[in-house]
Amino acid sequence: MLFWNNIYSQFDPVAFKLGPIAVHWYGLMYIMALLGALYAAKWFVKKDNLGFTNQVLESYFIWIEIGIVLGARTGYILFYDPHVDYYLSNPWQMFNPFMDGTFVGIRGMSYHGAIVGFFIGTWLFYLKHKINVWRLLDVVAISVPVGYIFGRIGNFLNQELFGRPTDVAWGIYVDGVLRHPSQLYEALLEGLMVFVVLYFYRKFKKYDGELIALYGFLYSLGRFIAEFWREPDFQIGFVYGDWMSKGQALSILMAIASLLLYGLIIKRGKKG
Q: Which residue of 26, 39, 179, 226 lies most exposed, with the fewest beta carbons within 10 A?
């Protein structure tokens, strides 16, 4: 597995350049993630006869994509960035893709911040269109894991969010240190595993909204487990003892919120 172990030294995270702008594989995979989730949503709507038009889905995805980008970037600044005071004083710099005149892209996104932005975008879309938002959220729940697989592969190709030191045969050398390819573990646990469970469970759900609540719990579980192989953010380290990362702490909160939401949906459904 020598080639695999040393793949980072033989692979350029830049796919190609457009003049002074470098297009990274991560950016291409992000586009694949968005398209993968959108087309999965269209397929499930048609397959399960859920009653949403392609126009509604495409419009909705634009709304939530804006919310996700804004929430992910803001969440990273608030949860992880050590220069939070600077960004709060200069909020326009959060989305400045240039550093010292050089295009470097926007670096640093938080999944949990993206979730907040996603729900804000969904709420605003509901206020405008007055649709069955819980059924729509269930479509999202089963579609997003498809995109998430591409997203984590993008993290791997971009050589970021790498794992903890290891001696396993499939480890990847990062600056001379053999590490877990934790991005790929996350693609399996937070993407594929969540998708498979929801794919089969969707036929057994009784009430709209069950899938989005179950998604939140399953993602949190997968993320919590994967974080044991992922290197904690260097500027934060562990937030509790010598084992709990910030991602795990946020995942616990998200799992609790998801279980409460699931209980409320079941209770509301039985009353209805």
A: 39
